[in-house]
Specification:
282 residues; mainly alpha; Receptor-associated Protein
């Protein structure tokens, strides 16, 4: 009951804050309707509704500034996130305060748990950002074998490497790998060689993408057959993806034991052994 009271109180405070935040917009609308003011309000209130929360979070982040680490900035740049560093800082503050408020119904122990929960909530947006980055790398790795296989087939049929790249971009299954291929194709279209265009991709965070770019660079440098090289690489990448799927499937059997040990087994013991103990207890 105390937890529900704290949650509803937090929702009421957020609703009141949103009501006060929209007061300026309503005042401008009334004045515009009366013909006394036609200019749109400046600041977050004058932004479209979809961008107002980020604007308020950015203002909160400027009020509580903190320099983001190089890793966070790199993750935001790689993922082309629409969130600015100030908005991310504001989101971290809001997340920390929200978790700290949930510990208030616990009473005196809340004084000890609140700083810990604030620190945990403060790190949640960064953890989500890292999780999205790792998920993006997994999508690129899972899509790359088919892309390389298609390029090998096109090169065997006599298509140039640039045209093979162009067809591979249109055949990409997810936007992440498509953007990476479009970057390489754009540099090749500007007149650079395939080895020069793949030099940046050879330092990509995805291991499969690094392997793909370095293999093509060696084939271009030593004059090896690009079609044969791509065919061998496609087989290796497909085998590596199959091994990853097997390892992921093996971990599922271990994860299934968690609800069995911590939920089903205690309930079974309470219904059987607990009843017997209570029945024979004088």
């Amino acid at each position: 009951m105390d937890l529900a009271t704290a949650v509803f109180a937090a929702i009421a405070l957020l609703a009141a804050a949103g009501r006060l935040a929209g007061r300026r917009t309503r005042r401008a609308a009334v004045l515009a309707a009366a013909g006394r003011e036609t200019a749109a309000p400046s600041g977050p209130a004058g932004l479209p509704p979809s961008r107002r929360p980020r604007a308020w979070l950015a203002r909160l982040g400027r009020a509580f500034p903190a320099r983001p680490g190089e890793e966070v900035l790199r993750l935001m740049e790689v993922q082309a996130a629409a969130w600015s560093p100030h908005a991310l800082q504001g989101l971290r503050v809001v997340s920390g305060v929200a978790l700290a408020v949930l510990s208030l119904p616990l009473g005196g122990i809340a004084l000890t748990l609140s700083p810990l929960l604030f620190a945990a909530g403060y790190q949640v947006p960064v953890m989500v950002l890292k999780r999205r980055h790792s998920r993006r790398l997994e999508l690129i790795a899972s899509d790359l074998p088919e892309v390389v296989d298609l390029m090998a087939v096109l090169c065997f049929s006599g298509v140039s490497l640039q045209m093979a790249f162009r067809h591979a971009v249109s055949a990409c299954g997810n936007p992440c790998s498509q953007r990476e291929m479009e970057g390489v194709l754009e540099r090749i279209g500007m007149g650079e060689s395939a080895a020069a265009a793949l030099r940046d991709a050879s330092r990509h965070p995805c291991r499969e993408m690094r392997r793909f770019s370095r293999t093509l660079m060696r084939a271009e440098e030593f004059g090896a057959s690009v079609a044969d090289t791509l065919e061998e690489l496609a087989v290796e990448l497909r085998s590596a993806r199959r091994e990853k799927d097997r390892a992921r499937a093996a971990r599922v059997s271990v994860l299934i034991l968690l609800p069995l040990v911590f939920m089903i087994l205690p309930s079974f013991l309470l219904l059987t052994v607990g009843g017997m103990v209570l029945g024979y207890t004088p």
